[in-house]
TrEMBL record:
Keywords: Disulfide bond, Electron transport, Redox-active center, Transport. It comes from Nostoc azollae (strain 0708) (Anabaena azollae (strain 0708)). Disulfide bonds join 32-35. This is Thioredoxin. Pfam families: Thioredoxin. Residues 1-107 form the Thioredoxin domain. The record marks 33-34 as: Contributes to redox potential value. The active site is at 32 (nucleophile), 35 (nucleophile). CDD domains: TRX_family (cd02947). GO terms for cellular component: cytoplasm. GO terms for molecular function: protein-disulfide reductase activity. It comes from the Bacteria. Belongs to the thioredoxin family.
Amino acid sequence: MSAAASVTDDLFEQEVIESPLPVLVDFWAPWCGPCRMVAPVVEEIAAQYEGQLKVVKVNTDENPQVAGKYGIRSIPTLMIFKGGQKVDMVVGAVPKSTLSTTLEKYL
């Protein structure tokens, strides 16, 4: 089972922008209640779409450059990247069905 990998400011370009697979990026922080609620959903998505989708987490407290670059104002923000471009995003703790429906468009 694939778990969501943590990605830092330094690795974002390599892990997300240059990824051959679409990437779901979970922007979160340890103090964020809704982030903790959505975390198991993100892990389920990582397992369900293993091989089709890369799933990574960015701690916005520790990696302010990436969060700033993509205008992250509220967390959790789940962003979808494909071919190095941001193609969609979901803000807030959403049910798995909502996230899956959004992701299916890009797989």
